[in-house]
Automatic annotation (TrEMBL):
Keyword Membrane in record: yes
Stored NCBIfam families: spore_V_AE (TIGR02839)
Keyword tags: Membrane, Transmembrane, Transmembrane helix
Protein source organism: Caproiciproducens faecalis
InterPro entries the record matches: Spore_V_AE, SpoVA
Protein name: Stage V sporulation protein AE
């Protein structure tokens, strides 16, 4: 049942993004920023944590989950380090994911051949 809820919640978040792409004049970059900001805002208000607890990866994998991770890391760093945590918390919380994305992007570039798209 956990897999079903993860699929439904994550799919709903992604479907909202697709609807925004299809029926608004928002660019994908603006939708990305909107989703990350919405994740931060909902986490700050205490509304996203219950969704994460309910849906698991269905709520943490989409872009709103990145905002959640940044906000959660910032809140924990502020509790631990005070005001200085505002500057270091989000980066520290998301460092492993960003490093993995860079590493696997590099590995994929080693095995692929770039070419002209035309």
């Amino acid at each position: 049942m956990d897999y079903l809820w993860a699929f439904l919640i994550g799919g709903t978040i992604c479907a909202i993004g697709q609807v925004l792409i299809d029926f608004t004049k928002l660019t994908p970059a603006r939708i990305l920023v909107l989703f990350v900001t919405l994740g931060v805002l909902l986490t700050g208000l205490g509304l996203y944590e219950p969704i994460v607890n309910f849906a698991g990866a269905g709520a943490t994998v989409p872009l709103t989950g990145f905002g959640y991770l940044m906000a959660k890391g910032t809140l924990e760093a502020v509790r631990e380090h005070g005001l200085l945590g505002v500057f270091s918390g989000g980066v520290a919380a998301s460092a492993a994911g960003i490093a993995a994305a860079v590493f696997f992007g590099y590995v994929a570039a080693l095995f692929s051949k770039s070419g002209d798209k035309s």
